[in-house]
Amino acid sequence: MTDLDTTTNEVEDHALASLVVKETPASLYQKVEDLVWKYDISYWDALNRYVTENDLEIEGIKSLIDSRLQSILEKELRSANLLKKKKRDTKALDV
After folding, report:
1. Domain range for residue 76?
2. Of 50, 49, 41, 51, whose CA–CA distance to 72 is shortest?
3. Would 54 be classed as within a structural domain?
4. In whole angstroms, how large is the CA radius of gyration of the chain?
5. Domain count of the fold of the chain
6. d(CA 70, CA 79)
7. Is 41 part of any domain?
8. DSSP string, 18-68
9. 39 lies in a domain?
10. For residue 89, what is the DSSP state?
């Protein structure tokens, strides 16, 4: 490997490192919500847009989806019939 190859690899590694964004569940939620309001789109579409624009995999950010965002996504997907409806607790209905 030449010095030029080493320098090129270091530049590429630095560029990749600068692309890695430190996300938290709260920051992801805020970014998704910002997209929802900015583009007047659903949370699901906003999440997909965020993932696509940042060259991420949806599986890679699964751990960053907090209960608040998960609840919103589930409601949207259920209303679009893309997620099975929860079974009702029949014991609660017995009198």
Report:
1. 22-81
2. 41
3. yes
4. 20
5. 1
6. 14
7. yes
8. HH-----HHHHHHHHHHHHHHHT--HHHHHHHHHHHTT--GGGGGGG--HH
9. yes
10. -
